[in-house]
Structures are given as structure tokens and as C-alpha cells.
Amino acid sequence: MKKSLLMTLLLLSSLPAYAEWMPVYEIRQLATTIFVDPQTILKEGDRVKISVLYDSKTAQFGRGGPLLSTQARSEFDCSQVRSRVLALTDFSGNEGSGKVVYSNSAEQKWEPVVPGSVSQTLWKVACGNDKIDRLPQF
To answer: Is residue 43 part of a domain?
Structure first.
């Protein structure tokens, strides 16, 4: 467990210290805005890795207890239209601040990108298939 936490913290700490988070999606029901940091986009062939921040105005109850934000490193396959989470950390505070309440550095399984989902919006941003003119809201 300690090794997993250390790996996640090292991954997230290797990201630029002054992230330029860009809002790309809003979930009104959860009072949550989803951001990406365009400076963290890493393209490798048809695959793209990107940092994502889920930030809530109200406490969400997650894997390790109440949280207000989650930072994740996600990977998108542009040709096969699929995605997976590479690592994530839940925080008690907004914008990745406060106490770490959960961390997981295990790569998740590839999942298909569902039309109209958060994943599709993130896939479009990562793969360059869409310009975000306005913040999608659901």
C-alpha cells in the first residue's frame, strides 16, 4: 500500500507545479467541474496521456471518505476510441489540496468511450477531435 501511494504521489508530483487547468465539463447534479491541463498532454502514436482534475463544490463520498477533488492521469486511445485511468488521488480539499484520502496507481482496464459521457469529452480534448467552445453541462 505504501509503495502504491508513493508511486502515485511521484507521478502526480512530476506534473508541472503551476498547472493551467482548463474546464472541459460540468456535472450540475454533483456540482463538479472537470478540468484538464493541456501542458501535460503526452502523445505516443495513437495514444494520449493527460492530467485531469475533478473538482466539486460539495463533498463527495468516495473510496476513502469525503473528498472535494480528484487528480487523475488518464490515457486515451484515439484510434480505438477507448480510455483508462493510469493513477488517481482523492483529496479532502479543492483543486488537489488538503489531505490525501485515497490513492491508486494501478492502471485500470481499457473501457470504450461512451457517447455523451465525460469520457467522450476528455477523449475529444486529448485526441484533438473537438474544440471546446463552451462547457458541456449535464
So the answer is: yes
Distances (CA, A) of 79 to 16, 83, 99, 107, 129: 28, 11, 37, 20, 11
Alpha-carbon gap, residue 99 to 80, rounded angstroms: 37
C-alpha gyration radius of the chain: 14
Phi and psi angles of residue 18, each rounded to the nearest 5 degrees, phi first: -110, 75
Distance CA 100, CA 81 (A): 31
**3-state SS, residue 48:** strand
Short-list 100, 137, 102, CA closest to 116: 137
HSE-CB at 17 with a 13 A cutoff on CA atoms is 0
Instruction: Tell me if 35 is assigned to some domain.
Output: yes
Write the pLDDT tens digit of every residue in 59-94: 988 788 899 999 999 999 999 999 999 999 999 999
Q: Provide the residue range defining the domain that includes 28.
A: 2-127
